[in-house]
Design goal:
With 160 residues, this protein is an alpha+beta fold. The chain contains four helices and eight strands, in the order ββααβββαβαββ. It has an eight-stranded mixed sheet, sandwiched between helices. The longest helix is centred in the N-terminal third of the chain and has 14 residues.
């Protein structure tokens, strides 16, 4: 688990604190509404995920994006081992920035910092996103991600 703060010029990216739960629940619900996942995670789901990540620290990480004392986004990362890549894959399960804060480089900055501080056994960062999300795909291509298969885009963190 990446359990430290990342401080950028656009935001601070940190682990959620108890006082962040209401804002985090709101952002998760917005994410699922925008992606039309049909899921209603709510506070019980958010708390269950945080509990799982705290109990099994290598399972993944959750970051909230904070700017001017406001939670403006989040990223949920699930870690898994890849035999083919010979290391941990940081799978971006959810990444969301409030609509009024998008297009300002917050997600770009976070992903750049994530690549820099990834653990030594991390082999790649991966996303799974629908083909129709052209804006996100374009952003990921600019950041060095390549289409893998189907809905997956991946960026190696070290030589394979």
């Amino acid at each position: 688990m990446l359990d430290y703060n990342l401080v950028g010029s656009l935001a601070t990216y940190r682990m959620p604190a108890p006082e962040d739960i209401p804002a985090l629940v709101d952002l998760v619900e917005r994410f699922h509404a925008e992606t039309r996942s049909g899921r209603e995670v709510g506070q019980p789901g958010v708390l269950a995920t945080l509990k799982e990540l705290n109990q099994h620290r290598r399972s993944g990480s959750w970051f909230v994006f904070e700017k001017d004392e406001e939670v403006i986004g989040y990223c949920l990362i699930a870690n898994r081992w890849s035999n083919g890549l010979g290391g941990i894959v940081l799978h971006v399960d959810e990444l969301y920035v409030r609509p009024g804060r998008r297009g300002r480089g917050v997600a770009t900055e976070f992903l750049g910092l994530l690549a820099k501080v990834a653990p030594g056994d991390a082999a790649a960062i991966r996303f799974e996103l629908p083909a129709e999300n052209r804006r996100a795909r374009a952003l990921l291509r600019r950041l060095g991600f390549e289409a893998a298969k189907g809905r997956v885009m991946s960026r190696p963190l070290r030589g394979t």
